Amino acid sequence: MKKIFKLVLSFIKNIALVFILAFFIKYFLIQTFLVEGISMLPNYKDNDFVIVDKISYQVREPNYGEVIVFKPELHKDINYIKRIVGLPGDKVEIQLGHIFINSTQVIEPYLKSNLIYYENNRDYYYSKTLNKDEYFVLGDNRNNSQDSRSIGPISKENITGRVFLVIYPFSNARIVRASEGFKDPVY
Length: 187
Fold this sequence. Notes:
With 187 residues, the chain is of the alpha+beta class. It has a single domain (2-175), classed as Umud Fragment, subunit A. The chain is built from 3 helices and 12 strands; from the N terminus they run αββαβββββββαβββ. It has helices at 2-29, 56-59, 148-151; strands at residues 30-34, 49-53, 67-70, 80-86, 91-95, 98-101, 104-105, 125-129, 134-138, 154-155, 159-168, 174-175. A hairpin with a 5-residue loop joins strand 11 and strand 12 (174-175). It is an enzyme of class 3 (hydrolase). It is found in: Membrane.
């Protein structure tokens, strides 16, 4: 009887340890998200299952081209996935669908080539200088994305983390490089 009790107690301890470890990983290290919608086409598709690194931005700042998951200020119950285009202090301009950071055009090889994005003429001209804790984010599918053009810049505190892995569907599975082809706007 004593042996069974020790075995049950050991089993309960192991289960508790697994739950504590899972809680720690989910809330402090990584988290999974399901991409919903078409705002990040062609690079992230509806129903892609991604893993987000939640710790990187505790030790370094977000950077150009990184795809992040965040909760916008006005919709704290919704997770958005977008690409960082502007960093704190940058002057972001959109002219005829082209992005300029501090007056230098940004090359975006991850977008479909030769497409100029217009949505209800809002991209003919846009200009915003970011504050010290603001990031400008855009969806890769610019004509179908609710992003900083409409919801405004996002603060670092609203960023959940950086997408670093697409795990499902298996045909789309890949490790996501930090900048995934973004060319810094310094030419």
